[in-house]
Amino acid sequence: MTDLLGAALRLTVVVGEDDSWHGRSVSSEIVVRAREAGLAGATVVRGVEGFGRRSVVHTSRLVSLSSDLPVVVTIVDEPAKIRMFLPHIAEVISGGLATLEDVEVMQYVGTYRGPQIDPANK
């Protein structure tokens, strides 16, 4: 992997946490595909409240008991790599929002040590 510094592209995908693709959450599927594509990394963040195209508010507040909270997947890498990745996730995003933004990477430090197994996902 080359150093990721300077001009880059940020892909942000917003979906519902209940959205699935062949038995796996859409956000997890995007992360798996990003790793397989050799992208620099991916982060998934669960929202506490939000609404989308249908203007239905989903919230984690106890009184609403909403189960389909917003989930945001963020991936930053070289523009060419991100653009080549887009067709790989188009089929899994049946609803939601995907955006691209130009960003500048100031620091990206880490040492790749091969596949890591998360004990929580054994």
Can you put this structure into words, describing what you see?
This protein is an alpha+beta fold and 122 residues long. The chain has a single domain (6-104), classed as Alpha-Beta Plaits. It is 19% helix and 34% strand. It contains two helices and eight strands; from the N terminus they run βββαββββαβ. It has helices at residues 26-36, 79-90, and strands at 6-16, 20-21, 24-25, 42-46, 49-50, 58-59, 70-77, 97-105. The strands form three sheets. It has a four-stranded antiparallel sheet. A two-stranded antiparallel ribbon has the order 2-3. The longest helix has 12 residues, at 79-90. It starts with 5 loop residues before the first strand and ends in a 17-residue tail after the last strand.
Q: Distance between termini?
A: 27 Å
Structural class: alpha+beta
Q: Provide the gyration radius in Å.
A: 16 Å
Briefly note the CATH topology name. Alpha-Beta Plaits
Main β sheet profile = 4 strands, antiparallel
Roughly what fraction of the amino acids lie in strands? 25-35%
Individual helix count: 2
Number of domains: 1
Main β-sheet, spatial strand arrangement: 4-7-1-8
Low-confidence region ranges: none
CATH first level: Alpha Beta
Q: Choose one word for the global shape.
A: globular
Order of secondary-structure elements: EEEHEEEEHE
Query: How many DSSP E strands?
Result: 8
Name of the CATH architecture: 2-Layer Sandwich
Q: What is the overall pLDDT average?
A: 81
Helix content: 10-25%
Strand and helix layout:
Elements (H helix, E strand, L loop, with lengths): L5 E11 L3 E2 L2 E2 H11 L5 E5 L2 E2 L7 E2 L10 E8 L1 H12 L6 E9 L17
Antiparallel strand pairs: 1-7, 1-8, 2-3, 4-7, 5-6
